[in-house]
Amino acid sequence: MAENETLECITEHERILQEIESTDTACVGPTLRSIYDDQPNAHKRFMEKLDARIRNHDREIEKMCNFHHQGFVDAITELLKVRADAEKLMGQVTDTNRRLQEAGREVMAQTEEVIRCRIQQRNMATTVEKLQLCIPVLEMYSKLKEQLESKRYYAALKTMEQLEKIYIPRVSQYRFCQIMAENLPRLREEIKEISMSDLKDFLESIRKHSDKVGETAMRQAQQHRTFNSAVAKQVSMGHYMKPVYSLNGRTHTHNGLMMDTGDEDEADEEILTAQDLVDFSPVYRCLHIYTVLGDRETFENYYRKQRKKQARLVLQPQANMHETVEGYTRYFNQIVGFFVVEDHILHATRGLVTRAFNDELWNMALSKIIAVLRTHSSYCNDPDLVLELKNLIVIFADTLQGYGFPVNRLFDLLFEVRDQYNETLLKKWALVFREIFELDNYSPIPVETEGEYKLVVSRFPFHDAEIEKQDFPKKLPMSQSVPQIYTQVKEFIYASLKFSESLHRSSTEIDDMLRKSTNLLLTRTLSSCLQNLIKKPHIGLTELVQIIINTTHLEQACRYLEEFITNITNVSPETVHTTRLYGLSTFKDARHAAEGEIYTKLNQKIDEFIQLADYEWGMAESDGRASGYLMDLINFLRSTFQVFTHLPNNNNDHASMSGKVAQTACMSACKHLSTSLMQMLLDTELKQISMGAIQQFNLDVIQCELFASSEPVPGFQGDTLQLAFIDLRQLLDLFMVWDWSTYLADYGQPTSKYLRVNPATALALLEKVYRGMKDTSKKNNIFSQFRKNDRDKQKLVETVVRQLRSLVNGMSS
């Protein structure tokens, strides 16, 4: 068993030694570790085995050295023999080399000279080649400098592009090319700054030239509109004309018809455009430059932003623009010039501005323009200036419409301006009407000759067969203001028609506008002037009567005004939507107001006479005649009512109307007189009245009744006018007859003799009479209390007073 283990260990040690001998030194570690991992003391045995193997190798080395030693000695001996020959050979080679060096020194010098020349030639060829590459670069750079000096920036940018892409890359290794390449971005920035500066100068310049551009564009639009109007007139007159063409500002037609476009001085004037008035090259140049530099979007944004700012500045009006037409003209010229320039930029450039951008600008501008015009037109009180403004707005709208901008809102604005124009016209004509009324003498127009008569008839449509038959001189019923008012109404219609021209409206619409404005003139302005005239304190009854006559004739003339409008607009009055004139109601209202004022003034005059009454309320007996103030009042009324015979009565309607006015005035005067006299009797400040005063008062009332029965105004039936004094008459009769028993017995009966006497009225007057009776009795006889008649009368009065008070209390309860 032990022997077997010994053999296995020996065999393992042999294997390990073979691995160590055949394996790299770095890999010996695992092999050696396996020795120590085996049986105890195995490494000792391995060391013994290793020592034995070393000794064995030493013996083999020694054997090999002994075998080769003699050959090594023989080789050394031979080398020693060769050394002498080698030294001899070395001497010979050195001598040969010296002789060769001496012989080739001259050849070397010539060879070096040849080499140097060849190097120079090569360098020269290289230099020429490189210079040929550099010269185009330098020439292009020189060209670039010249272009910059001559301000040909777009060409300079093209040159820079060629330098960068073609020429500099060929010689990029040279320092000067690197400097050039570094300078090109700086030059580009300089070009951008210069071109932007030119653009700013252009934008500043265009602000100054916009006025001229707009003026030219609006003048051309106006000439075009005038030309179209002339063509329309000729076509309407039956002339045929072939299409018109323009050549160098001159207008020509075929078929022998020539259209004059202006004065002889303007015949040779060429049609100017925005490009003729403004140099757009800075915009084109700057646009091209920024496009080449790849920064077009920045340029577009800057240009649009600046133009928006300029648009806001252009749209700001001057504070006093509304004072003169020049202010409006300058404002419109600037706006038109701005948008004409933008329209040119739109069509001359690709994408710098777009139609959407222009539309946005225009919508913003249009809102601002409308607001400005609304504000400033409201300050204007001159209709001529408003008319000029309207013409400017029309030309302004036509001009911009020709450039493709929508202008419907401007024409809608014109309807608002038309209302303002009508308001200014109404104010102006109000002054005209007031002046006419102030200068009128309110008397019939005297006509001395047929020429004067025809002159009046030519101004006012007056027709009266009876007056025409009369011999000269004669008088027309109306006063001088009537034909003047009629003429001024026609002038107003003409003035209103001026505004309707060029509004692109139909004849029906124009007719409707004229009728509405004329209605405003009649119903508001003329009516107000008439009402104010009627209310003026210096207008007397005669003037009021004449005013009634005047309004009657003006009312009759309204149908002629309608015919006048129809002739102007060529719109039949039978058209469904035709507006009718309201003059009839205007003059009727004025006439009614004049009639009411007649009644009022009559009553005021009666009050003035009543204030002159000076009754002696304590008189014992009457004077036997009516009071002086009352007779004067009755004479005044008689003369006044004679004036009413001048009221128009040339036909049945007017006759009935004049009679009605006179009757109403007469009845109103009598009633007011009766009421005033009654109030005089019942005045609370009047404490006592004598029977003598009652008798005097009765005489005055009798005169009033006589006046009423004398038929101061024809047309009253029976004693209708006398009934105005019936209350006074029954009251006075009651006191004059002293018929209290009948009054008290018949009170409340429809057949009562004193039906119109109110108990309260009778009581008030009776108490005043009673106080007067007592006072008179005391003054006349201190023993009056012993007189049986007076005592009985006083008792009767007291009894009547008690009964009247009971009646009054019964009525109140």
Number of helices: 25
User: Mind summarizing the main beta sheet?
Assistant: 2 strands, antiparallel
Mean pLDDT: 77
CATH-defined superfamily of the largest domain: Dsl1p vesicle tethering complex, Tip20p subunit, domain D
Domain module tally: 4
Shape: elongated
CATH class of the largest domain: Mainly Alpha
Helix content: over 70%
From the 3D coordinates, which CATH architecture of the largest domain would you assign? Up-down Bundle
Radius of gyration (Å): 66 Å
What CATH calls the topology of the largest domain is Methane Monooxygenase Hydroxylase, Chain G, domain 1
DSSP strand content: under 5%
Unreliable runs: 237-269, 649-657, 782-786
The ordered H/E elements are HHHHHEEHHHHHHHEHHEHHHHHHHHHHH
Characterization of this structure:
It is a single chain. With 813 residues, this protein is mainly α. It has four domains: 10-23 and 30-127; 280-405, 5 helical Cullin repeat like, CATH 1.20.1310; 425-596, Exocyst complex subunit Sec15 C-terminal domain, N-terminal subdomain (Tetracycline Repressor, domain 2, Orthogonal Bundle); 613-811, Up-down Bundle (Methane Monooxygenase Hydroxylase, Chain G, domain 1), CATH 1.20.58. The chain contains 25 helices and four strands. It has helices at residues 2-22, 28-37, 42-149, 153-170, 175-236, 274-277, 281-292, 296-314, 325-348, 355-379, 383-402, 408-439, 450-459, 465-469, 481-500, 507-535, 541-569, 583-611, 628-643, 652-681, 691-709, 726-737, 740-746, 759-780, 788-812, and strands at residues 245-247, 250-252, 445-447, 474-476. The strands form two sheets. A two-stranded antiparallel ribbon has the order 1-2. A two-stranded antiparallel sheet has the order 3-4. α7 packs antiparallel against α8 (296-314), α9 (325-348) runs parallel beside α11 and α10 (355-379) packs parallel to α12 (408-439). The longest helix is centred in the first third of the chain and has 108 residues, at 42-149. 26% of the residues are buried. Residues 237-269, 649-657 and 782-786 have low confidence and may be disordered.
